[in-house]
Design a protein that fits this description.
It is built from two helices and 13 strands; from the N terminus they run αββββββββββαβββ. By secondary structure, it is mainly beta. The radius of gyration is 30 Å and the shape is rod-shaped.
Length: 198
C-alpha cells in the first residue's frame, strides 16, 4: 500500500514517525456495505511481534432511490407518444414503497405491463395519475416504456413526473412532452332527406 485508501499496508520507519502516522487512522467501508469489520495492527521489531485489533461497527445508511428517465419527447395530439428508457435503482432495497407517476394537462399514460405491482391509485392503463408498489425488477419492467396520450384535441404541452419512494427517501424526475397540434377536419351536420312540391 501507500498509506492512502488501502485495504492492507506494510511499512517501516522510526517509532516516532510511525506513531505520528498511525495516531489517527480513517477507515471507510466499501460502497454500500454495512458489514461490521475488524482492523488489525501488527508490529514487528525484527525479533518479536505484537498484534491488536479494533472492532468497527458499521451502521447502515439508506441510499436514496435514483430515477433514470427519458429525455424530452414530442408527438401529435390524440396519438400515443412513447416515453422510453425509464428505470429506478436503489442500492439497498429490492422493493419500493411507492412509485407515483402523474401528468400535467389532462392527458393519460399507460405502463407497458402491471405484473407484480400493487396499485394504491390508478390501474396502469390510461391514468392521469397512478401510485403503485412492487419489486424494483417488476417496477422497471413496467415503466421501461410509457405511452402518453393527450386529451382529445388538446395540444397543450405537458410534463410527466416520476416520484419513487423506498420508505425513507424519494427521488423525483420529470419528462417534458411537446404536443403538436393536428388540424381537425371540419364536420358538417346536415338535415336528413327532405321532400316538397315542384
Amino acid at each position: 500500500g501507500d498509506g492512502t485508501a488501502d485495504n492492507t499496508m506494510t511499512f517501516s520507519g522510526t517509532i516516532t514517525n510511525i506513531n505520528t502516522a498511525i495516531a489517527t487512522l480513517t477507515w471507510t467501508s466499501a460502497a454500500d456495505d454495512h458489514t461490521n469489520a475488524v482492523l488489525t495492527i501488527l508490529s514487528n521489531d525484527g525479533d518479536d511481534t505484537d498484534s491488536d485489533t479494533v472492532a468497527i461497527t458499521v451502521n447502515s445508511v439508506n441510499d436514496v432511490p435514483v430515477n433514470t428517465v427519458s429525455g424530452a419527447v414530442s408527438g401529435n395530439e390524440d396519438t400515443a407518444i412513447s416515453i422510453a428508457t425509464n428505470s429506478i435503482a436503489d442500492a439497498d432495497h429490492t422493493s419500493l414503497t411507492a412509485v407515483t407517476i402523474s401528468s400535467t394537462q389532462s392527458g393519460t399514460f399507460s405502463l407497458v405491463g402491471v405484473s407484480g405491482l400493487t396499485f394504491a391509485a390508478g390501474d396502469g392503463t390510461a391514468d392521469n395519475t397512478m401510485t403503485f408498489s412492487g419489486t424494483v425488477a417488476n417496477i422497471n419492467t413496467a415503466i421501461a416504456t410509457l405511452t402518453w396520450t393527450s386529451a382529445t384535441d388538446e395540444d397543450t404541452d405537458a410534463v410527466l413526473t416520476i416520484l419513487s419512494n423506498d420508505g425513507d427517501d424519494t427521488d423525483s424526475d420529470t419528462v417534458a412532452i411537446t404536443v403538436n397540434s393536428v388540424n381537425d377536419a371540419p364536420v358538417n351536420t346536415v338535415s336528413s332527406a327532405v321532400s316538397g312540391n315542384e
